[in-house]
Structure prediction request, 83 residues.
Amino acid sequence: MSDCNETLRELETFLDGELDEPARDAIQAHLGGCMDCLQAFDFHAELRIVIQHKCQHDELPAGLLSRIEMCFGEDFDGDGRIG
Ligand SMILES: [Zn+2]
Prediction:
């Protein structure tokens, strides 16, 4: 079973679909029992979808955009100014 650091390090490779099957199984097993890594994984997976959509349609789902803003913290004051 992988630990958290190992799982997060492999996350991008996993999302690229470039891991071999034993490594994928180990990550999926870890995600099944570790909420922290599952949330990190979820966020990266959604971020990829957004980036793909952004390239194609130049649009973001509103709910996800607010999640991204939350991740960047308090720097957003609501009308786009920093500080
Ligand atoms: Zn973990």
